[in-house]
Design brief:
The protein is an alpha+beta fold. It has one domain (about 1-200): 2-Layer Sandwich (Alpha-Beta Plaits), CATH 3.30.70. The chain has five helices and eight strands. The radius of gyration is 17 Å and the shape is globular. The protein starts with a strand and ends in an 8-residue tail after the last strand. The relative contact order is 0.21.
Length: about 210
Amino acid sequence: MLYELTTLSVPALELDTASARAWAWVTAPGAGGRVVGFWRTELGELFQLLLLREFHSEEALWRERRRAQLDSTPFNIVNAQIALSMESYQPFPFLPPAPSQLAQPGACYEFRTYWLKPGGLSPTLAGWAQALAPAQAYTSHLIINMYALDGPPRITHIWTFASLEERARLRAEHYAAGLWPPKGGPQQIIRAASFICLAENRRAGDA
């Protein structure tokens, strides 16, 4: 299983239009992959749309990547001010596939990306594997964690919470109990970024 995280950086007044156009792209007849989630940023870097898709094979992912690269208007982008990035990821091997998170209005989602030291992925994976079960009250909110297959070494994990208050409470409790963060994980991080997002209200058949 592989994942692609697509980011569209959009002028503020064009978010709704860009969202509808991107959704039409990923749900068009012949489009590849399963849409896991579609979000827009609310805290952190603003005016971004984030699309996560799941692919059953490397061939399927690269076929869909080529569709975007060779199209004159990928993701139906018609405004030259919209920036596009597409990143490829492998999920952590001990995590289940990401469930669909499209229809979760009102929930808040956190995207955390850690850029790792060279060689930092292996100890990061080991720490997470050991920490998940003891911290289950917190890690049950994890949608997915995955490591990059392109670009600098990094991991991106996505969480869902009923509110920012719930997130803060769970993190504080698990830090105080020594259950989080995973042992050896923070030592591998060069830098980190976090976005708080809301789900886009899109369904199958929307235009």
